[in-house]
Amino acid sequence: MRFFTVISMIVIALVNIHSANAAQITNIASSPEQVSPLLPGLNAPKLTLMNQSNKAVNLERLYANKATVVVVYRGGWCPYCSRQLAGIKKIESQIAQYGAQIIAVAPDSPAELAKSKIDSPNYQLLSDNKLAFTQALGLAYFLDDKTAKAYRDRMGVNFVDLDGQSKVALPVPAVFVIDKKGLVQFQYANPNYKVRLDESVLLAAVKAASAL
Predict the structure, then answer these.
(1) Which residues of 181-208 are buried (b: 16+ CB within 10 A; e: fewer)?
(2) Mean pLDDT of the region 68-81
(3) pTM reported for the whole predicted model
(4) What is the rounded distance in angstroms from the CA atom of residue 187 to the CA atom of residue 70?
(5) DSSP 8-state assignment for residue 185
(6) Percent of the residues in the chain that have a pLDDT greater than 90, as a whole number
(7) Which of 20, 79, 85, 152 has the most CB atoms in a 10 Å sphere around its CB?
């Protein structure tokens, strides 16, 4: 009897460990076209994420400091995302002049984020490696098995494990502008990951949000 009790306790412990490490599925669409991004006027998610130095960053406190540009991207392995981040880096000083800050969030681990060349107190990279933030923003979607395999085999991409080994997910690339009250003032999300927001449109949105 004691033997089976011990075995049961071990099984329960292993299940708990897996649950703690696995991402929780709360809002993941079956395709990028079916995501439902958070709309302007709604509260931005107030979670805590890790930065590239593996330090916790409380988003609620971050929002309260100044207007915030939130860039959600697929990962450092994505060339379209890298070009987008580089383009936003070029207008970082103009964004700062409007009293705004930038955070870029990806499913990459803090260790992967640390490989980035972006290093600025006004432009932070944050890890959403359990996709909690991505799901809260309504941007997460499951990749079909063929695409997931192609990405793994050709790019060596590490995905968040969401359902054993059967499904993986990514965010639809998006940009949000959030005011100091934590409200979304601007949102752009495109299921076509090759099409990104023009920097001039972003600057106009930041200017409007920073005046609130």
Answers:
(1) ebbbbbbbbeeebeebbeeeebbebbbe
(2) 94
(3) 0.84
(4) 9
(5) E
(6) 62
(7) 85
Dist. CA 111–CA 117, nearest whole Å: 13
Q: What are phi and psi of 67, to 5 degrees?
A: -60, 145
C-alpha span between 69 and 103 (Å, rounded): 6
The encoded tokens of residue 63 equal: 């929002």
Residue type, 135: Q
Burial of 137 (0-12, 13-18, 19+ CB in 10 A): buried
Got the DSSP string for 144-202? PHHHHHHHHHHH-----EEETTTEEEEEPPEEEEE-TTSBEEEEEE-SSTT----HHHH
Angle between helices 79-90 and 199-210 in degrees, nearest 10: 50
**Residue 46 is encoded by which pair of tokens?**
């107030």
Mean pLDDT of the chain: 84
Q: In one letter, which amino acid is 88?
A: I
Written as six digits, the tokens of 140 are 């997460």
Amino acid at 4: F
- The CA dihedral of 17, 18, 19, 25, to the nearest 10 degrees, is 160
Beta 67-72 vs 100-106: how paired, if at all? parallel
Measured between alpha carbons, how far is 138 from 187 in angstroms, rounded to an integer?
A: 12
Phi-psi region of 109 (alpha: psi -120 to 50; beta: other; left: phi over 0): beta
Six-digit token pair at 157?
């991409």
What confidence score (pLDDT) does residue 171 get?
A: 95
Tokens 């965010």, residue located: 171
